[in-house]
Design goal:
Length: 70
Amino acid sequence: MCDHRPPHFHAEYGEFKVTVEIATGVVEGRFPKRALRALIEWHEIYRDRLVENWELAEKHQPLKKIPPLE
């Protein structure tokens, strides 16, 4: 499930794609400004759950549900 470190997640918005480092919030890729602001806010709210899911994925265990970005 985990593809490599550092812990991160991928997000898509239309044809735009980014990778966000969970610990730092550093973003690689491109997103429209409004969508990026919403994504970063979501990341800040759910950072602890994202870390927890990364650790579960490393152990090949089921991930816990995180509310989607709306």
